[in-house]
Amino acid sequence: MADILYTYHDSVYVNLTNKCDCACTFCIRSHHDTVGESGNLWHEKDPELSDVIAAVDAFDFTGYQELVYCGYGEPTCALDILIESAKYAKEKYGLRIRVNTNGLANLYHGRDVVPELAEVVDVVSISLNAPTEEKYVAVTRPGFDHAFEGMLAFAAACAKQIPEVKFTVVDVLPEEDIEASRKLAEELGIHLRVRKYV
């Protein structure tokens, strides 16, 4: 069975699903089966809510304050399990909840899911990936039309309802694209984090 929880740096991560509505050119899934100290992250079958709660209860959170929903898939593709397990972990263990997402949840579910996330999530990190629609589509290869616009709208909605929201780009982008991404993020009032490619 694939790992449901794994650690990386100072956080505990939840590998909730292997479903994803993008096929990013740089995705680690196409190169490795593991991240950090995890075992295999490919589920034969995505975990149920009871599996996630059992994994949370079996984990020793001593020294950890944050639970991050980010695995080998887009965590918002398993939205109900994300919300319920995050609520459980927050109430029982006092953990801060972060979701690392591609920002396409509203397109995937066909409705505004930000209020549901806002009930339990403290931090949302959204993969901006590129500063323009053309470059975004080329690198992200999303499963939706108007994905770039939808992702930006999701980010703007999150910024109004969730305490901390940030965009990320990977440091393999050309410097001019990083600067253009920073400018776009600033226009939306959202911090940009340039993350190291792993």
UniProtKB/TrEMBL annotation:
Keywords: 4Fe-4S, Iron, Iron-sulfur, Metal-binding, S-adenosyl-L-methionine. The keyword Transferase does not apply. The keyword S-adenosyl-L-methionine applies. Residues 6-198 form the Radical SAM core domain. GO terms for molecular function: 4 iron, 4 sulfur cluster binding; catalytic activity; metal ion binding. Pfam families: Radical_SAM. InterPro entries: Aldolase_TIM, rSAM, rSAM_sf, rSAM_TatD-assoc, rSAM_TatD-assoc_bac. This is TIGR04100 family radical SAM protein.
